[in-house]
Amino acid sequence: MQNTHNMTLRILGARGSIPVNGKETAQFGGSTSCYQIEACGQTIFLDAGTGLINARPENDRISILLSHTHIDHLLGLPFFAPMFSGQAEIDIYGAKRGDLTVKEQVERFLSPPLWACTIEAYPAKVNFIDAVYPMQLGEVEIEELSGNHPGGASILKLSLDSVSVVYASDYEHTPGKQRELAEFAKGAALILYDGQYTEEEYLKRKGFGHSTVSEGLRLFAESGAKRLVFVHHDPFHSDVMLTNQEKELTAAGVSFAREGEIITL
Ligand SMILES: [Zn+2]
Ligand SMILES: [Zn+2]
Question: Which structural domains are found in the chain, ordered by start?
Answer without folding.
Answer: 7-264 (3.60.15.10)
